Amino acid sequence: MVKYCNNCYTENEDTSSFCINCGTKLESIPPVKDVSYPQYPSYNLMDQLEKTKKSKKWRRLSTFLIVTILTIIILLLIFAVLFTGEKTTTIYPTDDIGLGRSSSDIPSNNSEYAAVRNDYGAGGGIYEWDALIKFEISLPSDAEIKSATLKLYYCYWWDNNPAGRNLNLYRVTSDWNETNSTWKNQPSYAPLPSCNSTVPTSYGWMNWDVTNDVKSFVSGQATNYGWKITDETYWGTVNIPVTRFQTKEYGENIPSLEITTKNMKLLESPWFIALIILLIISMLVLLWKRTRN
Questions:
Q1: From 254's CA, which of 10, 74, 219, 245 has a CA 20 to 30 Å away?
Q2: Residue 17 — φ and ψ, nearest 5°?
Q3: Top-confidence residue, 13 or 258
Q4: Among 8, 37, 180, which residue's Cα sits nearest to residue 99?
């Protein structure tokens, strides 16, 4: 390493004590230490702008998703509350017919009326008229049936007013149809009545509670062949009271079967609860990621 004279700036040997040119004493200069400077990362403005743009886009998207999920959860809960309750389905008959002992071989499938009368008048038991009715019931076997009501429109009486008489309803136990059924080939029926209904004092609807029968039909415990309606209150003299109903052929105020079922409570359904939990978790994940960006 050379030494420079401070007086004439002449180069001298490192071991020299005096300048070879002017004789000035050379001063010893301490060696310069290496100075290390901290390394800073390179800053790219375009990269930073791109990152900021992506961050803003993600925030907008996450906000939209969070609001959407929250809206879906609220709508599902509202729907669950509204959906819970009862539903009444009205069914109309596939077959309905009146059968009379006095016309035992003659079907009355096209009649607009079906009459019911007790068998016992003057001279013994030869006067009975009954009604048969059948419906096609399409419900799942696990349907929760709250009630089932058979409704027939009582439209006329003759000979004597039947008001206050009980009309029994029996579950039919063999197949039949209104086209070929007569008194002689009528279907069999259960030994005990399912229920009864009292003839009102004025014309109008008569109702039979057939809830237990319909439950049996839907669950498969009994086959649905419909019902038979009879007047079994003994009369024993002339002018037996006749109760007449309108059939489906009449066209209005026709027979019907009203079945009320309980809708499944969505809030008690495992899949519905799982869906709500999944949506909530998704929303929480989005919120967490949003705070991280």
A1: 219
A2: -105, -20
A3: 258
A4: 180
Q: CA 136, CA 24: separation in Å to the nearest integer?
A: 131
Tens-digit pLDDT profile for residues 256-274: 999 999 876 666 677 777 7
Distance between CA atoms of residues 244 and 117, nearest Å: 9
- Give the Cα separation of 110 and 96 in Å (integer): 9
pTM: 0.65
Closest CA to 242 of 166, 157, 132, 144: 157
Question: Which helix (H) or strand (E) element contains residue 51?
Answer: helix 45-83
In 3D space, the residue among 126, 108, 104, 130 whose CA is nearest the CA of residue 117 turns out to be 130
Alpha carbon distances (Å) from 77 to 15, 69, 266, 269: 96, 12, 9, 12
> Is the separation of the CB atoms in 101 and 129 below 8 Å?
yes
Q: Does domain 87-262 have CATH number 3.40.50?
A: no
96-128 per-position pLDDT tens digit: 999 998 776 666 667 899 999 999 987 777 899
Q: What is the pLDDT of residues 226-248, one digit of tens each?
A: 999 999 999 999 999 999 999 99
Asked if pLDDT for residue 13 goes beyond 90, the answer is no
Residue 35: how many CA atoms within 13 Å on its side-chain side? 2
Query: Which DSSP symbol is given to 103?
Result: G
**How far is C-alpha 97 from the chain's CA centre?**
36
Cα 293 from Cα 291, distance rounded (Å) = 6
